[in-house]
Amino acid sequence: MTSQDNNTVTAAGNVLILYKDMTLTADKVRFDRKKNIARAWDNVTFRDKDNIIHASFIKINLDTRKGLIRDGKGFYKPYHYFTAQKIEKIGENNYILHNSTISSCSGEVPDWSFRSDKARINYGEYFTADDATANIKNIPVLYFPYFIWPIKTDRESGFLIPNAGYSNEVGAFFTPKYFWNISVDKDATFGLNYYSFRGLQYLAEFRYNKSRKEDIYLYGEYIYDRDSEANKNKRWKIVNKSNVYLTDDIELRFNTDYVSDFRYKRDFDKYSMVASENENSDDESENYYINEMRLNIYKPLGNLYIKYRDEMEYFDRQEGFSKSHLIKQPEVTLEKNFMDAKLFYIDYHFDYNRIKKTNMIYQNEEETSFKETTIKRNNGYLNLYKPFNLKILTFTPHYRQYYTRWYDYSEQFNVSQTDDGSLLKLDQEGNELERYIYNIGYKISFNEIYKNYKYFKHSIYNTIEYSQTPYLNQQGIPDSIEDDRIEEEKRYTYTLTNYLTSKDWNLKQSFTQGYDAALEKNQWEPLETKINFNYKDLTHFYFENHYNYEKNETEYMENRLRINYKSFYAQTEFIFDKAVEEEEKNTTWQSSIGVDIQPFELAFVHESYKKMDEFSYNFKNFKTQEYTAKIIYNSDCWSLGFSYSEEEYEEIAKSGTNIDTEKTLFLIVKLKGLGGAQKEILSGK
Q1: How many CA atoms are closer than 13 Å to the CA of 40, on its beta-carbon side?
Q2: 334, 473, 500, 611 - which has most CB atoms within 10 Å?
Q3: Is the overall model pTM greater than 0.70, yes or no?
Q4: Mean pLDDT over all residues of the chain?
Q5: Which class for 311: exposed (0-12), middle (13-18), buried (19 or more C-beta within 10 A)?
Q6: How far apart are CA 512 and CA 498, in angstroms?
Q7: pLDDT confidence of residue 511
Q8: How big, in percent rounded to 5, are the helix, strand and coil portions of the chain?
Q9: What DSSP element (H or E) covers 586?
Q10: What is the rounded distance in angstroms from the CA atom of residue 18 to the CA atom of residue 5?
Q11: What is the dihedral of CA 595, 596, 598, 599, to 10 degrees?
């Protein structure tokens, strides 16, 4: 390091300059102390916060951060690479680039990039360029008069990658979308779906993370469908999954997934910004929808729930369709569990329901029938119980008393009155019906029995339960909501559970046997056996069997096995459910296999079904429900692949129900930094 005066310093060989949050290294540096300007040559590296530029020469004012860079190669977090023959640094975060490229791929010749004679970088904002070309390696493939690329660390408003393609159902389609970053805790997305056969569909989505326990989510779609096969042209979908606290103990909650008609999901769900979320149990069809609003008030002595709920479900018919509505307008519930009354614990529940049940059968506009039933109900129970710790076991007896009153019934009650005391009776007076009924029982939970072996621990738990509800003739009682029917039972249940745990694996095995002495036949309930086994992250196995040994048959069987080994996985699921009444579909079998060996990812999924009169491991004669094949090539900065699927479905139309197969080919594209999409490029029946 030399200096001819007290101002200019020249340094050579592994030169390092540290200034505030900047670092400059080079083979040779000349530094002007008065002007605070550094010039550096050969193997230059300039670090500014988290950003890095390598160059052959740099001139930089360390105060203003303005300067000139030649033969620059830069990297901006998280994954933006750029090059330029000449870079003018015109501010702390602003650059003008000459003969430049930008990409999210590293390397001398990136897999893909955008090139321009003149461009601008505003760090934390955008890379913009005039007369830009998109290049694969060094080959230009697309031209852009103006190009903009976000290089932001925070999310920003802007247009999203649109979907486009062709389908036999909707024709050619194009779906532009715009993302609006409203603030740090809320955003929205707006979109349009243009279908050449059907018209223009409007889409909107709003998200608001109001607090740790409050979220607002709204989504809507609307289309005037000029080629509708449903019973209307104005078609829509609404989703509302929100909860807000009006005060610390008063909550308003929404749960809505609702559509205008019986064909909506089939016609438009795969083109939606948000697929339908069916949070219903397995026995409810995919044509089940819900609209619910609830006001919850939480207090120490009880919780009050005021709920409006509309349950809608569509059913297939040979001609047209049928629709059922169950509307609770409203349901008011007051309840509390685990109240400590010193001598015992108390659970209580009281509810008021005003029910309207509507059934509609639609064949065509001229042949449509309605049936409406209304009723009001007061219902409640009081449950008393007390656990007694008896050293080797815990004994918990309980007594539960129910009271139910139905009135303002649009039809007529037709019941047999009974009076077996004040706690068990059925009493009708005009268009009013009262019921008193109770349940008694106990639970015995034995303490853990265990032994530590050399390589694992074995634990055993035994549980015995008894529940008795006396007989009450309830024929003719309405059956629309929970606790309308309370059947007689004298039920004994025994459960044996084994836990085996070690460092690398664990096994849970349980047997549950029930016996109901109140039944005249089939008193022994099916023996339920469950096994759950895990070995590290390599193997997961689940087995469940419900065996009715009075009939000497399996009523339910479920098997699942998944194996992971390095980049390979295989999974299979086999389910038999004799209670399923849907034709030919009481047995399902799904298998999938995949491998992820970079740079390739391959997967195959096959779903099939058949009908079995009795369970057997017979894998012959299954009918294909759906299969999907996928192949993707993954680079460090891009992915390209295809997905092909064939799915059998029941098409509900005005003319009836048809079974058809839909074949769809998807193109999967992802560019690091710009996002990606799975786009339907071909669809047919």
Answers
A1: 29
A2: 334
A3: yes
A4: 88
A5: middle
A6: 12
A7: 97
A8: 0, 70, 30
A9: none
A10: 22
A11: 80
